[in-house]
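Q: What structure does this chain adopt?
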Amino acid sequence: MKKKLGQNFLVDKRVAKREVGYACIDEDETVLEIGPGGGILTELLLSKASRVIAIERDEWLYERLFDRFRRFIPDRLELVRGDVLKVDFPPFDKVVSNIPYSISTPLTFKILKLKFKKGVMMYQWEYARRMVASVGDREYSRLSVGVYYHAHASILERVPASVFRPVPKVDSAIVEIRPREPPFKVDEDKFFWLTNKLFQHRRKMIKNILDEELGVKEMEERRGDQLSPEEIAQLANRLGKGGDDISA
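A:
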């Protein structure tokens, strides 16, 4: 298998079976698969779901997949050739994918803005740790805050590098994503702007960041990475228009 677009392809069917099992797919559900590669997941998904939508950018892989699963097209398999960051996703119930790691962040947040029941996705191990981290954890980051705002995420298992070809330098993780309504009300633009600023300068005191960025006087003596998502939202909600004083 050729390495395409930063992707390392899963070759262990036992891992793929566990991924599909975690998704708990009902026979009437539509499943989205991103970057099907050689089709190891596609085959298993077709045995469970009513319909599978598989999006593949690479022409060579697309043609191989089309030949392999021709009998399922178009009734049960919609095979789409395109860039997943640019194409519109048809409606789906669940997403089960071994995604290209090079686009983990934009792809994850594109998916999180959609309505679906559940996701089971493969990420690099350290990236997955950042996704699920809480305030106080070494891995806690703006990624942690962004994912938390949209969903509950948890690591289901660590996957060794040896089950991929080519063999990557790092392990991977299967992550479960369960979308939910945001746990607090906030102006999203302010919230994510503030989150980015706090973690860009994670060693600075919050009062210094807000003074430098907005000319706002704030008495908060902690660093930005010491705030929980809820506390970041509270701070964002106190930001007045045009940089008004937000002191409590």
